[in-house]
Amino acid sequence: MIFAHGYGCDQNMWRFITPAFQDRYKIILFDYVGHGQSDAAAFDQARYDSLQGYADDVLAICRALNLKDVIFVGHSVSAMIGVLAAIREPERFDRLVLIGPSPRYIDDADFVGGFTQEDIEGLLDSLDSNHLGWSSAMAPVIMGNPERPELGEELTNSFCRTNPDIAKHFARVTFLSDNRADLPKVTTKALILQCSQDVIAPEAVGHYVHQNLPDSEFVLMQATGHCPNLSAPEETIAAMEAFLHGSASNKTAAE
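Now predict its structure.
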């Protein structure tokens, strides 16, 4: 099982999830360049000008460790990174677990991404001008669960630890991406875990991913916010277990 963290996070964000699987699976954790304990000097702006560069890193890990039949667990932007990796080398992947996936963050015609073009431009401008201030303001909103401020505080600290120049670039690549056309190309069986009240990936986005990802299952979680791996690990684990053991069912009418 490869666990891929979201924007501004690191592999430590999986600490409540991996113990449930470590006795049955080989667990692979890593940090994207600029995050966690990674070597920021390895950052190449041209390579990472699209999410494909990050997908290539996932595939490089698979090749280096000779991994096959991989269960890829991707949170937030890593959901689409996993989609791109599975399209590129489908023979390596057995299942995809996509937590809070979004193929596009900006609204477009009849597609609801959750943000207007002006919203995203404002968000990116704010991040460019004040990385720490943006992190302090946005992380609690992304996390949700205001009654548990320690969760927002952890995400804030994670955002602030991320290399600021790389964080700004990764945010631009993430929030301006459009991977809708990639979804129908995926042949790997996938689980979409959709949180309630997710300001980054609203429920309509999860339904869209489910409808356009050919072999997928959709679960609407009771968990709120965008980071159930931290806020609701038990529910996240239960949904993953059901999917991996073939007993998951679509808990809401997605069509």
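Residues 248-255 have pLDDT under 50 and may be disordered.
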